[in-house]
Amino acid sequence: MDSDLIPIGKMAKYNDITIATLRLYDKLGLLKPYYVDPDSGYRYYSLHQNARLDMITYMKELGMSLSEIAGVLRQEDITLIEEILSRKNEQIHEEIRQLRFRHEAVERAIESIERYRKSPRTGTISLEYIDRRQILAIPCPEDFYKQGIGSYERCLAQLRHVMRKARLLQVHSYIVGTSIRREEFTHRHLLPYEIFAFLGQDTSKTQENSRLVDSGMYACTYADSFDQEECSALALLDFCREQGYSISGDYICEVMTEFNVFGGEQRSMFLRLQVPISFDKKEP
Fold first, then answer.
1. Which domains does the chain have, with CATH numbers?
2. Which listed site, 17, 89, 102, 152, has its alpha carbon 20 to 30 Å from 138?
3. Mean pLDDT confidence for 12-38
């Protein structure tokens, strides 16, 4: 036996890996021992094999699987490494994109809960400036005001189906909304028009079908449940008329947050009802 050979334990120690890892590499054909004692079966390695071990470690840290590494070492084709790494690069970019979207959605959920904690009591009507928002919307397939919460659930399920096809996670539909056309709302006719998810800035950049809800002043009120929305929406309409405000766009019901973790047979929803308004400004 060559006196320069070292036993498996020292080889593992030199490279900060385990003996089990070297045995696995042997089994997969990644790194065979330089010499195996025929009597004891003990494995010995040459220090020159560190170069191959370094290459295996390098490729692992690039995200290649052991089977991919074995194929590369078997074929000794550098173009295969390039092809595998190109695929890995695309996969990493997708993972980064999804993590960025998830991070954005978590931040928006935190903001929504904070707004809930600091929001006025139910029934309070206020004027609020709301910044522009991006939404991904579909036509509302059912009139859930007439058919109830079960109908709303079916509408929400269809929205989430569309979002999954757009490669968006369910977390992106944590904050959803519904709308009523201005013409219907001002005639006290509550007919759902669209159901949509509010998207963050990064998320909306990837969605061709997203659109902008413009910024502006909104008359707003708050409701604690799905069942409270209709009467609260009509009270908001009456307030706008009493104050002489012109309703300049569609009515929106925003589900700011939900607390379904606390039990109950239906969604525990906290709603912000809002209508965009404009004012008749008199010349000084």
1. 6-75 (1.10.1660.10), 98-278 (3.20.80.10)
2. 102
3. 92
